[in-house]
């Protein structure tokens, strides 16, 4: 149940191009909120809302030192999303294996 | 841009436990809306809204035959989500490789 709620939040967080771009940028290394905000044609307060949302889902961690808040990617949360997708893939692949076996069995029976 | 919009919709569609459960169920094979709705303690009209949303993002396809609407998973759309995650993983891994190289270079310099 907790995992379900976590996945709900993670998928909502990823459903926005600005937040996905932040995740991508942080994949290359930590960055300050100011550095992260630079490429985006939105106000800093709007950008900070995206950062807070990413932080609330655990996708990023932030740490304040003086006036600078540094953001770091938390890969574990993306691994949770990857894990869900991998489970789905396993289900299809099992099904494909069963279908192949069925076709093979039919051919052998002929 | 079209890919961004597609990803936005896909992530929104996956941000719901009922819709994720439908995706999982359809991974095991096609099913009618009635069969899919059965395990859920919600009304059929509420369930049909979830089905329509999944269909609008292309995650599932539906086909009506007589009074029965059959749903099928469209794996290509989940592959788009997998692809985005794989891109992120590649970025971290490149970074980890660079960090390892840096540490190795430092050790060799000592």
Explain what this protein looks like in three dimensions:
The structure is a homodimer of 110-residue chains. With 110 residues, chain A is of the alpha+beta class. Chain A has a single domain (2-109), classed as Winged helix-like DNA-binding domain superfamily/Winged helix DNA-binding domain (Arc Repressor Mutant, subunit A). In chain A, 70% of the residues lie in helices and 13% in strands. A three-stranded antiparallel beta sheet of chain A has the order 1-3-2. The longest helix of chain A is centred in the last third of the chain and has 35 residues, at 75-109. The termini of chain A are far apart. The model of chain A has no long low-confidence stretch (mean pLDDT 92). The A-B interface holds A 4, 7-12, 14-17, 20, 23-24, 27-29, 73, 75, 78, 81-82, 84-85, 87-89, 91-92, 94-95 and B 4, 7-9, 11-12, 14-17, 20, 23-24, 27-29, 73, 75, 78, 81-82, 84-85, 87-89, 91-92, 94-95.
């Amino acid at each position: 149940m907790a995992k379900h709620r976590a996945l709900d939040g993670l998928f909502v967080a990823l459903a926005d191009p600005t937040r996905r771009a932040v995740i991508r940028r942080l994949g290359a290394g930590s960055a300050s909120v100011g550095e992260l905000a630079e490429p985006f044609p939105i106000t800093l307060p709007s950008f900070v809302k995206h950062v807070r949302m990413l932080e609330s889902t655990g996708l990023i961690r932030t740490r304040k030192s003086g006036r600078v808040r540094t953001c770091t990617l938390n890969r574990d949360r993306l691994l949770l999303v990857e894990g869900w997708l991998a489970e789905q893939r396993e289900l299809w692949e099992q099904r494909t294996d069963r279908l192949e076996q069925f076709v093979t069995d039919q051919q052998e029976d002929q």
